């Protein structure tokens, strides 16, 4: 297996971590990464690192680089219509027990570059290309590329092509959307070209009635910027609004921005400034805050990795890092037996990912639809933080030796560099 020939679809975090560890296991492996965009997508909102992923970035020697490029966010403040702080949930200052704000809050593009840099000269990177179709064979998978129409055979096809993975759809013989679970939270992400938080290291969370949520996060750029998030949380009964959001998302950014202006028109607080910042931004995109619940993450020589197989809001980046490490580790542990390696990868990752996923009720409870629901939530959060119950809980957990749940993976015997 030392001369493995592998195709990775997607140049994001999951594929890069996998390539790093596979080259540690098999330095002579041939790895091709295809990216459908014409350039590397080194942008995106804030992501975080938790659980076993913290150990993995340390083993990669990437921890200090990541710490040097964090957003410096210190916690989240829930605010009222005049910007008054109602409750503040601070970061813990620990990596073994973390709060809503992680010790490793970093923009997706910065993290992707940290993982790409060590491998970029060791792999073949093909931009503006994607997988059109594939054909399984006993000894590999034959791939036809979408633009060049080139046909090539690989030992493995790794689908690291995101939540709406086309390869997952082909594997399941379904539309990719059929494995998406939880359509109740739609989010628009963009960078606002001014510091709306006035230097505060705390993100601000504000809810209006009927589902809109304005979430502003700090950006350490010295020019003064803010990361804007416009969330719409809908209940299963509000199919009309969900359909409007899904339709606007399909139609593109301009249509979605138009809808945001309507839905946030009378929300209050800093919504008008955020909407103007949205219009002036250069990196706007929108997405479902949803999960992928795939019944399997491999079929023959085709493997789902990261969001393509188990997207999980709030934990997806960590799962991508863990998945890349485990997949490479199992290929190391099963030389000459790819089938056994892929089965073990699935047996480790699927139960762990499913155990990390949740239903829509969590976001519904955190984002009430009515003014009285918001007042009750605010009162609860105020009391918890006033009484320091959140801090007490963390201290007790640390004293008892409890930490974040980690994946039950073997200790892989990596060759020395």
Please give a structural write-up.
The longest helix is centred in the C-terminal third of the chain and has 19 residues, at 338-356. The chain has 14 helices and 20 strands. The chain is an alpha/beta fold. The protein has a 7-stranded mixed sheet. Strands 7-2-1-11-20-19 form a 6-stranded mixed sheet. The protein has a 3-stranded antiparallel sheet with strand order 8-9-10, covered by helices on one side. 36% of the residues lie in helices and 23% in strands.
Tell me the total number of β-strands: 20
Overall radius of gyration:
22 Å
Query: Which residue ranges are poorly predicted, with pLDDT under 50 across at least 5 consecutive positions?
Result: none
Which class do the helix and strand fractions yield? alpha/beta
Largest sheet, strands/sense/barrel: 7 strands, mixed
Q: What's the tally of helices?
A: 14
Query: Strand order of the main beta sheet, please?
Result: 5-4-14-15-16-13-17
Shape: globular
- Mean pLDDT rating: 91
Percent helix, as a range, is 25-40%
Strand content of the residues, in percent? 15-25%
Could you tell me how far the N terminus lies from the C terminus, measured between alpha carbons in angstroms?
Answer: 18 Å
Task: List its traits.
alpha/beta; six-stranded mixed beta sheet; 20 strands; 14 helices; 417 residues; seven-stranded mixed beta sheet
Summed up:
This protein has 417 residues and is an alpha/beta fold. It has 14 helices and 20 strands. The longest helix is centred in the C-terminal third of the chain and has 19 residues, at 338-356.
């Amino acid at each position: 297996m030392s001369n493995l020939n592998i195709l990775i679809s997607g140049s994001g975090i999951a594929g890069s971590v996998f390539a790093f560890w596979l080259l540690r296991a098999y330095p002579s492996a041939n790895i091709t990464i295809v990216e459908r965009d014409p350039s590397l997508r080194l942008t995106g909102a804030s992501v975080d690192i938790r659980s076993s992923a913290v150990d993995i970035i340390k083993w990669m020697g990437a921890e200090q680089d990541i710490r040097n490029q964090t957003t410096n966010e210190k916690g989240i403040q829930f605010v009222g219509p005049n910007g008054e702080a109602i409750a503040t949930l601070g970061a813990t200052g620990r990596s073994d027990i973390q709060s809503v704000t992680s010790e490793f809050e970093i923009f997706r593009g910065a993290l992707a570059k940290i993982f790409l840099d060590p491998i970029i000269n060791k792999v073949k990177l093909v931009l503006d290309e994607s997988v059109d179709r594939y054909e399984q064979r006993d000894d590999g998978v034959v791939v036809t590329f979408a633009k060049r129409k080139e046909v090539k055979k690989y030992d493995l096809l790794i689908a690291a092509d995101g939540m709406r993975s086309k390869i997952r759809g082909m594997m399941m013989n379904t539309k990719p959307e059929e494995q998406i679970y939880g359509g109740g939270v739609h989010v628009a992400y963009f960078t606002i070209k001014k510091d709306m938080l006035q230097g505060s290291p705390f993100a601000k969370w504000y809810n209006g009635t009927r589902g809109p949520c304005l979430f502003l996060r700090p950006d350490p750029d010295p020019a003064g910027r803010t990361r804007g998030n416009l969330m719409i949380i809908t209940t299963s009964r509000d199919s009309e609004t969900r359909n409007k959001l899904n339709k606007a998302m399909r139609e593109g950014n301009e249509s979605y921005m138009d809808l945001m202006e309507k839905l946030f028109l009378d929300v209050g607080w800093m919504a008008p400034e955020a909407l103007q910042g949205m219009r002036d931004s250069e990196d706007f995109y929108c997405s479902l805050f949803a999960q992928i619940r795939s019944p399997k993450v491999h079929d023959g020589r085709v493997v789902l990795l990261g969001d393509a197989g188990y997207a999980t809001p709030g934990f997806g980046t960590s799962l991508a890092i863990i998945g890349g490490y485990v997949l490479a580790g199992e290929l190391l542990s099963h030389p000459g037996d790819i089938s056994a390696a892929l089965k073990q990868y699935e047996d480790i990752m699927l139960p762990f990912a499913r155990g990390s996923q949740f239903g829509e009720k969590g976001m519904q409870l955190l984002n009430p639809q009515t003014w009285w629901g918001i007042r009750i939530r605010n009162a609860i959060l105020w009391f918890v933080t006033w009484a320091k119950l959140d801090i007490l809980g963390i201290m007790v957990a640390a004293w008892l030796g409890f930490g974040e749940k980690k994946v039950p993976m073997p200790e892989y015997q990596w060759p020395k560099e």
